[in-house]
Specification:
alpha/beta; Elongation Factor Tu (Ef-tu), domain 3; Rossmann fold; 2 domains; six-stranded antiparallel sheet; six-stranded parallel sheet; 18% helix; 29% strand
């Protein structure tokens, strides 16, 4: 309700003074300069932020983008040294934002918050890093791997990353070739396992890799890699159900865990 002003400029008796309207500055934007579609509901975009200063972040952190007034946080695929911001997105048909993002093409813009956030980053206090993910949950791990390689492993000496990613179908692995290549080239620093949870379906007929859900495989690979509780930090990122089950299996054994949940809008 708008209050009318009294003739003298004072407020009507018994009413509080009207506060001046707050004029909000429009949010910065970022232009989509590249897009790659992997499936009908998974794609990556590369953003060029329009900011007066460089956008800085730590590997594993997230940025906040939006369309109109709807915003969501997305973990960043790219490493801090890369000139563009790479995001890996899953379409949620009934969601508020992803259907809008899905319609965007190269040249379109999204709103872009100028500050990165998040504490789901590499923890150098541990020497072994067991990283469990589902589909888009692999994103912060890709960023950390790229950062380590860019630095020539400086700051990552004496550390080893064990990444395991699960998906329903093989074509949901957008970064498996990249991570597999890194693991082959630097076997003393990185390991990567991709697993499909529906191996008997026709779509996965040619799949030759690991089979089963990540949460069911976590204990298997913890034992296979001979990881101990004192030197190992477990990172779990992706579907909340996977995270809860990994916690239920590993926390009672004494493992420490950090998590990042990807909610379905």
């Amino acid at each position: 309700m708008v209050q009318s002003e009294s003739p003298t400029g004072s407020t009507p008796q018994g009413q509080a003074a009207a506060r001046p309207a707050v004029v909000r500055k429009p949010l910065p934007t970022a232009e989509i300069v590249k897009r790659v579609d992997y499936t009908h509901d998974l794609w990556s975009i590369w953003l060029k932020p329009d900011l007066p200063h460089p956008f800085t972040f730590k590997a594993g952190q997230y940025c906040t983008i939006g369309v109109d007034t709807v915003e969501r946080a997305y973990s960043i695929v790219s490493a801090p040294h890369e000139p563009l911001i790479e995001l890996f997105i899953e379409l949620v048909p009934q969601g508020e934002l992803t259907p809008r993002l899905y319609e965007l093409k190269v040249g379109d813009k999204v709103t872009f918050r100028p500050s990165a956030k998040g504490v789901f980053v590499f923890n150098s206090k541990f020497t072994n890093h067991f990283m469990a993910s589902t589909v888009t949950g692999v994103v912060p791990f890709v960023s950390i791997v790229r950062d380590a390689l860019h630095k020539g492993l400086k700051g990552y000496e004496g550390h080893r990353l064990y990444i395991i990613e699960g998906a329903s179908y093989w074509d949901e692995f957008a970064y498996d070739k990249e991570l597999s290549a890194v693991a082959r080239e630097f076997p003393t620093h990185f390991s990567f396992v991709a697993s499909v949870s529906r191996p008997n379906e026709e779509k996965n007929r040619e799949w030759k890799g690991e089979k089963g859900r990540v949460n069911m495989l976590a204990e298997k690979y913890i034992e296979q890699y001979k990881l101990d509780t004192a030197s190992t930090l477990v990172y779990a990122c992706g579907h909340p159900g996977m995270i809860e089950d990994v916690k239920a299996r590993l926390l009672p054994k004494g493992f420490k865990l950090t998590e990042e949940r990807f909610w379905k809008e």
